[in-house]
Design brief:
The protein is α+β, with helices and mostly antiparallel strands. The chain contains 25 helices and 21 strands.
């Protein structure tokens, strides 16, 4: 122990003795370790931190699967879907393996508090939600059993800790007070514990409402189909009984599902159930795969950056060992063992790595805060902890120690075997005796740096090109002059008559505003929304539906297609006569026409949705437009006339003559004045909406670019350092060459050849490695191959150019060597 303390004290003295070396090395490590800690902090929060509930491994999520609905991109796997409320109750009441099941569904709520209307996100849950999870409120209590029995009898809510703190200032007197939700008073009975975000980490609710209040809080599709076995509205999870296994539960629930299909053949045809541990579903599995791939890619890139930093510091240590050769030789000659010297040198490396780790934590805090500052509201909810907890600190410590060993071992072994005879003679000319071995190790480090930098830069280049391709995708509507405003009349308690009167007043008011060219209503935003419904073309019985008979629906008002700039290819637009009592009309997009009536004319065809009694006739065929994301393949869409398909929650679409941002406040004030207590949501331009959907790929491209540039800078510094060292070692050689008649350009070419040989080897190795590694990210790229030759060639040229410049600076210094002074160099 005493020897270790002695090594540590001596190591600190040596680091403080060379503050310039220590600062450069620690900064290089801090950038690499900080980048790794930043990304690990996100991964830790999303994937590794268990939800704060009792016995999380015993919780299991249930998904509906349908034999007719397959994942287009998942190799034919069944799509995981929510569950209907009636089916949930049957599964809950007729199984023997679960201690309890809970149903959960997200919902928007209009809240009026302090005179300010706002829309918040909540969840409607069955009464045993908190007790089954084992979550005890910080203040007040959870739901009681009687609050889950009588519809509408118990208007109570439990607030999330984050919402209580942010919106109510952490006031302990909130328990027992009332909140006005959807125009009705609800009593706050409790506040959930800090850190509990529900069971969906990316959509944490602000509050929870008991299931028996569904008539008061649900609206639209969920309210209308609450008792429909076909309507997949609720996410369901449960807790296994002691001794029960996931396999046993899976087998029993498949049997129950088969019985339900026999008992209710029409709504449950082809449907069954699959079970997964809740820990794997806190992010929806399909989205989790994307997050996992993105997280793995980012960790790979920052890992490469750290390796480059390690190579840099190793080169600095090799250069520093040159100045310490005499010290080491003396210690060896006085009887110190080589193992003792290696331990001392490794201790110094570890101290340097720990210093880099401490600075890296500061870099990680800055990087985390920067990410959060630029995130859209739906990413990383307020309650999601991105603190540097014990797991993150442990990761940083471990990576620092591993880094210290990684960059310290080779220089320590190299420095601990000097030629005692030569070193103790103090002959500087003898450096040549060591040059070959040391230069070969330093050269290998440069090759490694170049190869790793090229992999990082190729990844960044591919994602930048993918991002550019994504931004060039035509959304199918004119976004440049469009703005959107959302509102929910159902949450205000409006019936259909009052709602349509409001629609008329709103459109009349907004259309009269200066700068407005057109205005219309729709149930969905131009991109990022929609409900899928089962379609049955005329002549096909409901119980013989084929695979994939689904289409996204959108209820739209008159003028919708003209406002958004979506052309109608054939047929007509909706008319004022397409209202209740008239024959049902529908406009479909080109993809739906192709999908349901391939090779036939869809105009005039008829179909009905599952559960409907009457058929709708196709009166028009519109051009395809994006539905959920810019990168999706064309999706079948059915547009319904709002006068025949009432929706309580709608969006106002406004087409402007100029920049739509200039009219945002004007439109907002005009709409708010018509109904002062109703909150407006999604008040934004269509371009901002698209930008929000592109946040994740854009941020990935930005991060990869930053890490790639960081790798390039570190590699350039490493190349410059190696070439500077080589030039200083060969000063006498260059003097002799120039004394014998060599021209400066000859010396320049000699040094550049040496540097570019290493760079060229690194580029070749890096290209070969990148060809293999980039294939892992192929599913995340849009419009560009993972082995795109243009990107590979451009990055190789960029890296070679920067490396050539880094080699040129020491080479130019070599051409200025004075032969007279060089020959006296001793």
């Amino acid at each position: 122990m005493e020897t270790l303390l002695q090594d540590i004290r001596y190591g600190f003295r040596m680091l403080f003795k060379s503050p310039g070396f220590t600062a450069v090395a620690a900064l290089s490590l801090a950038l690499g370790i900080g980048a790794n800690t930043t990304i690990f902090t996100l991964i830790n929060a999303i994937f590794l931190s268990p939800i704060p509930v009792h016995d999380a491994p015993g919780l299991v999520t249930l998904y509906t699967i349908d034999a007719r609905v397959k994942d287009d991109g998942g190799g034919g796997d069944s799509v995981l879907m929510p569950m209907s409320r009636p089916n949930f109750e049957d599964f809950r009441d007729h199984n023997s393996v679960f201690a309890g099941l809970v149903a959960v569904s997200g919902l928007p709520l209009n809240m009026l508090h302090g005179g300010t209307p706002e829309q918040i996100g909540g969840e409607i849950v069955s009464g045993s939600y908190f007790s089954l999870l084992g979550v005890t409120p910080t203040l007040g209590r959870a739901f009681l059993p009687e609050e889950d029995k009588t519809p509408g009898a118990h208007p109570v809510v439990v607030l999330s800790h984050a919402f209580w703190t942010k919106r109510f200032g952490g006031d302990p007197g909130i328990v027992g007070s009332n909140l006005t939700l959807n125009g009705l008073p609800f009593t706050v009975i409790g506040v959930a514990p800090k850190g509990f975000l529900g069971t969906n980490l990316l959509q944490s609710p602000n509050l929870w409402v008991p299931m028996m209040m569904h008539k008061e809080v649900l609206a639209g599709f969920a309210a209308e189909n609450f008792d429909d076995r076909r309507a997949l509205i609720f996410n369901v999870f449960g807790r296994l009984k002691p001794g029960a296994t996931l396999g046993q539960a899976q087998a029993e629930f498949r049997t129950i599902a088969a019985n339900l299909e026999k008992e209710y053949p029409q709504p449950n045809q082809g449907r069954s159930v699959t079970l997964m541990p809740l820990a794997q579903t806190t992010i929806f599995p399909a989205l989790r795969r994307t997050f996992t791939a993105a997280g793995g890619l980012l960790m790979t890139i920052v890992g490469l950056v750290l390796l480059i930093a390690c190579a840099n510091v190793a080169n600095l240590l090799l250069a520093r060992s040159t100045a310490r050769r005499k010290e080491i030789a003396i210690r060896l000659s006085l009887g110190a063992s080589r193992a003792r010297l290696v331990r001392q040198l490794l201790t110094e490396s570890m101290l340097l790595a720990l210093l880099g780790g401490v600075l890296g934590l500061l870099v990680a805090v800055w990087g985390r805060d920067l990410l959060l500052a630029f995130r859209p509201p739906q990413f990383f909810p307020d309650g999601l902890s991105l603190d540097l907890d014990g797991r993150v600190l442990g990761f940083t410590l471990a990576i620092s120690l591993i880094t210290g060993a990684l960059f310290g071992i080779a220089p320590a072994l190299q420095a601990s075997r000097p030629d005692l005879v030569i070193e103790l003679k103090e002959r500087t000319g003898s450096q040549a005796a060591h040059r070959a071995g040391r230069f070969s190790l330093r050269g290998a480090l440069v090759v490694t740096q170049v190869a790793l930098s090229l992999i990082s830069l190729v990844g960044a280049g591919l994602f930048l090109r993918s991002m550019q391709n994504t931004q060039r995708i035509d959304p199918g509507f004119q976004a440049k002059s469009l703005l959107n405003v959302g509102f929910d009349l159902g949450a205000q308690g409006f019936d259909m008559v009052r709602a349509r009167a409001y629609h008329d007043r709103l459109l009349e008011t907004v259309r009269a505003l200066p700068g407005v060219r057109a205005a219309s209503l729709s149930a969905n935003l131009p991109i990022g929304g929609g409900i899928g419904r089962t379609i049955f073309p005329e002549g096909q019985a409901p119980n013989t539906g084929s695979v994939g008979q689904f289409a996204t629906t959108n209820s739209v008002g008159p003028g919708f297609f003209a406002t958004l700039g979506i052309p109608i290819r054939r047929g007509r637009d909706f008319l004022e006569t397409d209202r209740e009592g008239a024959p049902r009309a529908v406009i479909i997009n080109e993809e739906m026409a192709r999908h349901f009536w391939p090779g036939d004319d869809a105009l005039g065809k008829r179909f009905k949705f599952f559960g409907d009694e009457s058929f709708a006739e196709v009166v028009g065929i519109a051009a395809n437009a994006k539905v959920q994301t810019l990168t999706e393949d064309p999706q079948p869409v059915a547009y319904l006339p709002e006068m025949q398909a009432f929706e309580p929650a709608m969006f106002l679409n406004v087409k402007t003559e100029g920049d739509p941002r200039a009219l945002l406040d004007t439109v907002r004030r005009a709409a708010q004045a018509l109904e002062p207590t109703m909150p407006l949501t999604n008040v934004q331009t269509a371009e901002d909406l698209i930008a929000t959907t592109l946040w994740a790929p854009r941020m990935a491209a930005i991060l990869l670019s930053i890490f790639g540039l960081l790798a390039l800078v570190l590699a350039s510094v490493g190349i410059y350092g190696v070439m500077s060292y080589a030039v200083s070692q060969r000063t006498r050689e260059f003097g002799i060459r120039m004394a014998l008649g060599a021209q400066p350009r000859d010396v320049l070419a000699l040094v550049l050849h040496q540097g570019m040989t290493l760079v060229g080897l690194g580029v070749v190795i890096g290209l070969a490695a990148a060809l293999g590694t980039t294939r892992l990210a192929a599913t995340l790229l849009v419009g560009v191959s993972a082995t795109d030759p243009t990107t590979f060639a451009a990055i190789a040229l960029l890296l070679s150019s920067v490396a050539a410049f880094a080699s040129f600076l020491p080479a130019r210094r070599a051409t200025r060597v004075d032969p007279t002074i060089a020959l006296r160099y001793e």
